[in-house]
Amino acid sequence: MYYFLSHLSCLDICYSSVTLPTILVNFLRQQPIISYNECMAQMFFLMTFAGTECALLAVMAYDRYAAICEPLRYSQLMSSRVRVPLAAASWIWGLLDSAIHTALATDLAFCGANEIHHIFCDVPLLLKTACSDTYTNEMALHTASIFVGLCPFLLVLISYVYILSSILQIRSSTRRRKTFSTCAAHLITVILFYGMINLNYNRPSTGYSLGVDTLVSTLYCIITPMLNPLIYSLRNREVKGALQKLLSSQGKESASPGRQ
């Protein structure tokens, strides 16, 4: 599990590094701009990390399945010969998807104001500003949403169906709770990631608001990667103890003026 968590942490850092510096620079400028090459590079890396995380979350779900449903064979199912190729395949999966979209986007013709009403470059936004035919790009986008987004999500669901069925067969409620706690952090991460990515790309076009769109994209690219380390750290006893001490000290400070 910690091997895959190291890859997830790397993805979280890369996510923020791709978008946040440009957002901060443009926030300080009177006229926010981004060059064509920078826009393509930002779109390429952003889609690479998004596709990689989709595949990696499915691999992590399989890891939880092997740990809970096949505990005696876990060392065999998740040996270094298995987990290293799985992690590498996740990165290659995202890289190939991003390379296809970027290559198709470079063939588009842009004219007019060339304004992107957003905080970062993304494929749907470029298609709206293009002057040439975008049918191939749109078909590639729909195909990617099935193979890169939906298929890993279905694998996660299938893994958790087997996991929940195994947990329900445990007679002791204490053991059921402890077993479920081993995959609770991953489940929360899956809900956050797929919830934000669905909200970012599948919202209805009616009632479009630039402010709402910016807020959703900020949650998707900045807030969610920031929350992942915190979610997994809550299983650590030292982190739990420090958090409890912080909350108790704040509670005492807020109650002290009332006693005086």
Automatic annotation (TrEMBL):
A single GO molecular function, which one?
olfactory receptor activity
What's the domain of life for this entry? Eukaryota
| Name of the protein this chain belongs to | Olfactory receptor
Keywords carried by this UniProt record: Cell membrane, G-protein coupled receptor, Membrane, Olfaction, Receptor, Sensory transduction, Transducer, Transmembrane, Transmembrane helix
Q: Which residues form the G-protein coupled receptors family 1 profile domain?
A: 1-232
Where does this polypeptide localize?
Cell membrane
* Encoding gene, per UniProt annotation: LOC103051209
Q: Which GO terms describe its cellular component?
A: plasma membrane
Family assignment?
Answer: Belongs to the G-protein coupled receptor 1 family.
Upper taxonomic lineage: Eukaryota, Metazoa, Chordata, Craniata, Vertebrata
Checking Pfam families in the record gives: 7tm_4 (PF13853)
Per the record, membrane topology reads: Multi-pass membrane protein
Q: Which species is this UniProt entry from?
A: Python bivittatus (Burmese python)
Q: Which ranges does the record mark as transmembrane?
A: 40-62, 82-100, 146-168, 180-197, 217-234
